[in-house]
Amino acid sequence: MNKRIMVVMFLLIANKAISHPLYITITNIEIVNDSVKVNVSIDHHTLEAAINEFSGSSSQLVIGTNGNSNETVLAYIECCLKILVDLKELEFDQFQISENEHKVNILLATKLDKDIFDITIENKLLNNIYGDPKNMVIVSNNKVEKGIAFTSLDTKKTITLVE
């Protein structure tokens, strides 16, 4: 191929990559003994846009001080992030939310009544506002640690946790 064409193609691709924002969530699912902890990290403005679309409002997201914002964040997370243990959906009994340098961290936790054979994750975070979010999930227990990427077209995966 002609060098000029290659340079122009490179510049077009680089310009598209630079001008197109990347929407990412990072979720850590940690299974330790008889408990599951889920930590979701999302950019503040991205989460605010997703929650406003989800709730049909246009309010500002205030972390930690406004109980209504916290309840709305929890409702959004519970709607868009489903975690099933051996085909039974987890119900979280602990919820914390904090913000650090424009990143919102959401911690969900619950106790388990038995050992886990497999875990199914359905991750639709940010799909309501962006057509191409990247939702990264890391699942770990004392035997397995696996990283999974979810997209708007690939939202559900199952991991076997025993070897």
Question: What does it look like?
Answer:
With 163 residues, this protein is an alpha+beta fold. It has one domain (21-160). It is 26% helix and 40% strand. The strands form two sheets. A six-stranded mixed sheet has the order 5-6-2-1-8-9. Strands 4-3-7-10 form a four-stranded antiparallel sheet. The radius of gyration is 18 Å and the shape is globular.
Please describe the topology of this protein.
Layout: H1 3-19, E1 24-32, E2 35-43, H2 44-55, H3 67-80, E3 81-85, E4 88-89, E5 94-100, E6 103-111, E7 118-123, E8 134-140, E9 145-150, E10 156-160
Parallel strand pairs: 1-8
Antiparallel strand pairs: 1-2, 2-6, 3-4, 3-7, 5-6, 7-10, 8-9
List keywords for this structure.
163 residues, alpha+beta, 6-stranded mixed β-sheet, 4-stranded antiparallel β-sheet, 3 helices, 10 strands, 26% helix, globular
